[in-house]
Design a protein that fits this description.
The complex is a heterodimer of chains A (149) and B (100). Chain A has 149 residues and is α/β, with parallel strands linked by helices. Chain A is built from three helices and nine strands, in the order E-H-E-E-E-H-E-H-E-E-E-E. In chain B, strands 2-1-5-3-4 form a five-stranded mixed beta sheet, with helices on one face. Chain B is an alpha+beta fold and 100 residues long. Chain B has a single domain, classed as Beta-grasp domain (Ubiquitin-like (UB roll)). The chains are: A alpha/beta (149), B alpha+beta (100). The A-B interface holds A 23, 25, 27, 32, 49, 52, 54-59, 61-62, 64-66, 68-69, 72, 77-79, 81, 83, 85-89, 92-96, 98-105, 107, 129-130 and B 4, 6-8, 11, 17, 42-43, 52, 54, 56, 58, 61, 63, 81, 83-94. Strand 4 of chain A pairs antiparallel with strand 6 of chain B.
């Protein structure tokens, strides 16, 4: 299960609307809780795939290093990533799976139809190794804005 | 030196987010890391002993690929970050292009 406040969910969905018709991408910070993840903050990232931004994204590792450092300063971990699919289903693709390497983290995908965020789904990357990884559908539990941590 | 362990690899490093690993080079520090936590090796390296393509290693803020790779010398106070790649994308546009 992915637990996230409404404000953070709205933020990552809005990011996809702003970058439409290109894919947006970003990082979710928080903590691991049991088999799930709790999101405390979302951090926007740049999409380096300027050659094909309408259907590809890539986060510069240098930016990830910076985000990771900042998350540690805040006492948080990287618990997942988000990106958008412009006019495409909010389902992971073979490309999404091939390029996913953060086993144990959540991958959130938002379908953005004609510039408006539609459905958002989350998938947990599971498996004992890179060779046996798989995405598992994951429930998103949305907390109201005033919910306590 | 200090090696920062990313979330997906902590289960193979006794759940630590940071490991102290001595060495004069990046390669020596990584070797020290995998000596301490042998399960990490198969997740970081291919069967022929090369760092996996999606494993990015940064010495402070520099990708070691653009330094001297695993021969890059390190100093006290340096930090090594292991950062798996993050990328992806939908396939719809490809299928549409093929069909049009």
């Amino acid at each position: 299960m992915l637990t996230i406040r409404q404000a953070e969910l709205d933020s990552l969905r809005r990011h996809g609307e702003e970058t439409y018709p290109h894919e947006c991408c970003g990082v979710m910070l928080g903590r691991m809780e049991g088999d799930g993840r709790v999101v405390e903050a979302v951090v926007r990232a740049g999409n380096t795939r300027v050659d094909s931004p309408q259907n590809r994204y890539n986060i510069d590792p240098r930016e990830l290093v910076r985000i990771q450092r900042q998350s540690r300063e805040r006492g948080l971990d990287i618990v997942g990533f988000y990106h958008s699919h412009p006019d495409c289903a909010a389902q992971w693709s073979q490309t999404d799976l091939a390029e996913a390497h953060w086993i144990g983290c959540s991958y959130v995908i938002t379908r953005v139809d004609q510039g408006r965020a539609a459905v958002t789904n989350s998938f947990a990357l599971e498996g004992p190794s890179e060779e046996d990884k798989r995405f598992a559908d994951e429930q998103i539990q949305v907390l109201a804005a005033e919910a306590a941590d | 030196m200090k090696i920062l362990i990313p979330t997906p690899l902590r289960q193979y490093a006794a759940k630590k987010d940071t490991v102290d690993a001595p060495g004069k080079t990046v390669g020596e520090a990584l070797s020290s890391l995998t000596s301490q936590y042998s399960d990490l090796r198969r997740h970081l390296y291919t069967d022929d002993g090369k760092l996996r393509a999606f494993v990015n290693v940064y010495l402070n803020d520099e990708d070691i690929r653009y330094l001297q790779k695993e021969n890059t010398p390190v100093q006290d106070g340096d930090t090594l970050s292991i950062v798996p790649s993050i990328a992806g994308g939908c396939c719809c546009c490809q299928f549409l292009a093929v069909g049009s």
